[in-house]
Amino acid sequence: MIDEPLTGSPEERLAALGLVLPPTPRPVAKYQSQMAAGSVVVTSGVLPTQDGRVVTGRLGESMTVEAGVAAARLAALSALSSLAAGAGGLQKIASLLSLTVYIRCAPDFARQPEVADGASELLLQVLGDSGRHARVAVGVAELPLEACLEVQLMGVRRA
Question: Which distant-in-sequence residues (6+ apart) come within 8 Å of 22 by Cβ?
């Protein structure tokens, strides 16, 4: 977890981490990347991608926990891009409400919280206190495109 107080805007924090928000993920079927109702913005599920390819695998079989944590960070960054698009920019995200992480894993894999921490920590690093959230981390048998995990965010935008 983060031990030092964070300073600067979310964009400055991203830059300090050596990160850039990727383009908002495009839907691969008949749904929207994000939806808003009043001040609440919800993203669709976002898969981890690297170099234009979905990160595939199964935690506890073909993937290590460390690789899962890295994939969770990638997916959280893309989900944050989608949330920012729905909110009108990173500065318009007042707070996160929830993070859901679906983890494709072996039947006996029980380290979902560790994998999901990759996403949680990235969100806290970028958004500071506004990035605190409730969370669900659950293991599943399969995900679209054989992705190793899928992330969904729900946040509140500033008026």
Answer: 49, 77, 78, 81
